[in-house]
Amino acid sequence: MIPTWWPVTLSALLFGIGLFGLLSRRNAIAILMCIELMLNAANINLVAFSRAVTPQLLTGQVFAIFVMAIAAAEAAVGLAIVIALYRNRERIVVDEVDLLRW
Amino acid sequence: MNVTWEQAAFLGFGALTLAAALLVVFSRNLFHAALWLAATLTGVACIYVTLHAEFVAMSQMIVYVGAVAVLMLFAVFLTEDVVGQKSRRLRSAWVFALPVAVAVCAILLRWFSGYPWKPPASDHATDTAGVIGIAFIQRYLFAFELTSIILLAALIGAIFLAREEKA
Predict the structure, then answer these.
(1) CA spacing 20 to 30 A to B112: which of A53, A98, B73, B124?
(2) Is residue B77 one of the residues assigned to a domain?
(3) How far is Cα B84 from Cα A25, in angstroms, rounded to an integer?
(4) What is the pLDDT of residues A57-72, one digit of tens each?
(5) Predicted ipTM?
(6) How far is Cα A43 from Cα A46, in angstroms, rounded to an integer?
(7) pLDDT at B65
(8) Domains in chain A, start-ordered, CATH in brackets?
(9) Contacting A residues, span 6-35, partner chain B, CB-CB under 8 Å
(10) Mean pLDDT score across all residues of chain B
């Protein structure tokens, strides 16, 4: 039996790694990858709590599936934006996309 | 402390997941980062298996490893600078990002360590796919249908955004 705090700790560490990548990577695709890491950290928590709180209804697992669906939609739209950006500006480095900055 | 096979598997897959996640963040080559992302997502699927969430683990493999990671690979192919030799991988602001990430992580772990976690129930549902399927068509029917609308909207939006402009 795995105690509940193990997956929760793993999730916190994975979230921290994803957050660091999100704030520090320059490439837009790498930033989207780090967002996926953070969403996965949230999902690990949902599954861990599902086992402790609603072992028969599996509510946490149901919500993990919802998060997965939304994350897939987010990745599709995000990468479409990145490709449109590349087509227009030839760069996908976020520091250099300063069209709205003055 | 006696470590059961389940716990040993969790610790092993957890270490692999974290190592792969670090490599996603620090890979200079974006193609390698996408492959490490697939490895991380597979590790998380293994974690789900050790937590007795088989259906979520399979969904993770199909949706994340099969679709999202491959989508990332295609995006890497379609844009320049795959090898990453031309530019730095981290922004100069990473010196500020590191303390922020470490602080968030430390605060979360601090909270978590003091919290009286409920132990996992021993009588959890074994037929996870059945229970989740019934939840989708009964209790969460509205959310389920709403998710399908979001997916359709995202699909149309992604096609519209990525489409070639025929001027």
Answers:
(1) B124
(2) yes
(3) 12
(4) 889 999 999 999 999 9
(5) 0.91
(6) 5
(7) 92
(8) 5-96 (1.10.287.3510)
(9) 6-10, 12-21, 23-27, 29-30, 32-34
(10) 87
